[in-house]
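Same chain as my last thread, 149 residues:
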Amino acid sequence: MIYKLTTLIVIISVAALFTAAHFSSPPDNLGINGGKLTPCPSSPNCVSTQETGKGHSAQAFKASGSNEQVMKKLRSCIKKMGGKITSRSGPYLHAEFRSRWFRFVDDLECIYDEAEGKIDVRSAARLGYSDFGVNKKRVDELRRLFEEE
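reply #2:
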């Protein structure tokens, strides 16, 4: 009896995770606010080039060229990584990445500052507490691809 109950609880939990991951909608705090991206929460599932705290910080990308040129290059790199561009407005770009197994969604945001010659990036998980370093790896991979292109 306990085995059946435990199995049922595990099945319901996994089904709930799949449903939550598949139907989660973008957070309300995405986008540019006062020229900045939303700060990372205290949980370790977010990284941003605009953060200075240990565990959340990343280095901004160096970039040059027109907004159109840089955004085209960013879109190309994000698509190579398996991301889906969901919106772009001026110097801002938003993309979604889904994990392979559970289909959890992570949001990637980029802002190009043409005057300073840099791209600020934020990558964060929508659900959960830890991301096992996935968002940091994603930002590092995007930087590598962007510099190579």
